[in-house]
Amino acid sequence: MRILIRASEQQQSYLQSGFPEGTLVSWYQPGCSFTDADAFIDLLYDSEGPVFTDGSLMPVFLCAVNATRQELPEGIHRINAWPGFLEKKSVEIVPGTAWDQAAPVLKALDWNFVTVPDQPGMIAPRVVAMIINEAYYAWGEGVSSKADIDTAMKLGTNYPYGPFEWAGRIGLPRIAALLQSLQEADERYTPAPALLEEAGLVS
Fold first, then answer.
1. How far is the CA of 76 from the CAs of 126, 135, 140, 141, 172, in angstroms?
2. What is the CATH number of the domain that holds 142?
3. Considering the entire predicted model, what is its pTM?
4. If I label 36, which of 48, 108, 137, 145 is the partner at 20 to 30 A Cα–Cα?
């Protein structure tokens, strides 16, 4: 199986040591051909936009954490490849149509995965975004410093990162965009003013 992957240098460095023998992986470069590929995985879709989205030709996976399948072309499979999540024991997938043809792609890469409902934020990003938001509310109200909030969260929950460390890894614009999307259905997700300010979305 030949799999074409669009990824950042950091993602490539992490992934390239874990491909099983017999699975041929190529890294996407602008202008490269898709004709020889059996599947395409775009880990940069939500940050850099689309380069190929024709799910009728081959299984296509897009890192589309916020966008639901209704907002994407037919046949697309959503994957959570936000920084810090791809390295976890399993990745979140929202299956599209023809899943029976797409699942073997992940198995060929030896990626463990869990299927989740088709909703903005999937599951883990939604939870982490909420934690980050609450931390920004606390910090903005002068409850404690960022470092102390990070330390308390890691000690109290055994999480690998504190909320501000997570925000730095994921990127505040991503977090803000997800919260704003979720806010449309539930005011609990209203972004903290301090978060929006640091994300450069308010002056």
1. 21, 34, 39, 42, 26
2. 1.10.1040.50
3. 0.91
4. 48
